[in-house]
Amino acid sequence: MKLRGIDFGNVLGASGVQGFFGEGYWFHKVWSLFGLNFARMTFVAKTATLLPRKGNMLLTQHYTPRNPFPGCVKARPLRGVMLNSVGLSNPGLGALLGTGNWQKRTEPFLLSIMSLTDTPKKRMEELRLMVEIIGFVKDSFSAPFGLQINLSCPNTRHNPHELIGESAKVLEIADILGVPIMPKYSIASAPVQAIRELNDHPSCDAICVSNTLPFGWQGVDWQSVWGSKTSPLAKLGGGGLSGKTLRPLVCEWIARLRDAGFTKPINGGGGILCSKDVEHYHDVGASSVFLGSVAVLRPWRVEAIINQANNLNWR
């Protein structure tokens, strides 16, 4: 998938699947002995906000999870699903840039940012500040990078429909950076016809879909999928679902978007737990895929999935 002449490859990581800087998580080191390998997958940083955000996951001084088994993440590997309510825990964009780690990367990658304030006007002001901060240090980056703008996180207590309506303004603000821009959506809150309109927006290089599905979303039979209609993360807002349940839902959404006339690149993901799942995304018109929950639920399959994605000719 090439955006503005930059080759981001056929398979991306989901935002944060390798942490803020690509360092990964403690269990990645264990599973690397049994085949876990992220080589040939484009790095996408964990989402940053303008100001430090405590969220629901305590971080170390190196911005990695303090608890090896955080209470804001629940996994059911046998069912192939997991929930998280991390809540965008991060030290703020300035602190992350201040480490210099992103600037040292030598291969194309994507930063991920999100504005969190409670009104559209304030969100646009916050986004402008984040864009200015990135622009200030842009020339110090060793590798070309793109910007993934999260307009879909289920754990931030915003009205997602408000955020979708702000897409055009967000794109105009971010375009000043002169880098590829990829807004990220959830099928739970992004109407196909609304996203279709972005096809004509000059600052939209591609879209990414889908973020997790908020627990309780009416498009999922929660008793069947999770084994309960009550989220184990109810005290943390319910959390967002990832895993195998998403794949047919996201693929169907992408197919409808293509049928509606959307021709720009689509980075599709959700529920990719085996190589065959990649083919489903390919067949419905995705331009690339991203991998997330598989690194927790089926880590030994990651390398084969990446190889399969790189063996296909994408739209």
TrEMBL record:
Gene Ontology cellular component annotations, sorted alphabetically: cytoplasm
Reported cofactor(s): FMN
Name the record gives this protein: Dihydroorotate dehydrogenase catalytic domain-containing protein
Keyword Repeat applies: no
Keywords: Flavoprotein, FMN, Oxidoreductase, Pyrimidine biosynthesis
GO BP annotation list: 'de novo' pyrimidine nucleobase biosynthetic process; pyrimidine ribonucleotide biosynthetic process
Gene3D superfamilies: Aldolase class I
MF annotations from Gene Ontology: dihydroorotate dehydrogenase activity
Pathway linked to the protein: Pyrimidine metabolism; UMP biosynthesis via de novo pathway
Domain Dihydroorotate dehydrogenase catalytic: 2-308
Keyword Flavoprotein: yes
